[in-house]
Design a protein that fits this description.
The protein is an alpha+beta fold. It contains 4 helices and 2 strands. It has a two-stranded parallel sheet. Helix 2 (about 60-70) runs antiparallel to helix 4.
Length: about 120
């Protein structure tokens, strides 16, 4: 009986995939939207905030934050690091750039100093 159920499930799965590939024709390629004109850039981009939860991520958080800050987003973009009671100094890495320093997309030297 188990083999019959397994074969029925396999056969129905195969039939569904056959339908999607043969009848719907390359459904996963998104060809139905290729004829549309490219979308123009909006007059003003909405602000975006990336919230980064971290716990014991001292080895990689500086590189992650730097990568986020280097995103090519034309609108206002900010990153919030949420430290969840790390025991390895994850939150302190963000602050090692010096008093009042602030990492930016143009200056990620703080990330190398933070890891040393």
């Amino acid at each position: 009986m188990d083999i019959t159920v397994s074969l029925a499930l396999a056969a129905s799965s195969l039939a569904i995939w056959f339908y999607l590939v043969a009848v719907r024709g390359r459904f996963c390629h998104g060809l139905e939207r290729d004829h549309l004109d490219p979308v123009s850039a909006p007059a003003s981009w909405p602000p975006v905030t990336a919230v980064v939860p971290a716990r014991n991520e001292a080895d990689s958080i500086a590189a992650s934050l730097c990568s986020l800050l280097q995103q090519d987003y034309p609108g206002l973009f900010s990153v919030i690091l949420v430290d969840d009671q790390s025991g390895d100094g994850t939150a302190a890495i963000r602050c090692r750039g010096g008093a009042g320093s602030r990492p930016s997309a143009h200056n990620c030297a703080w990330s190398a100093a933070a890891r040393s």
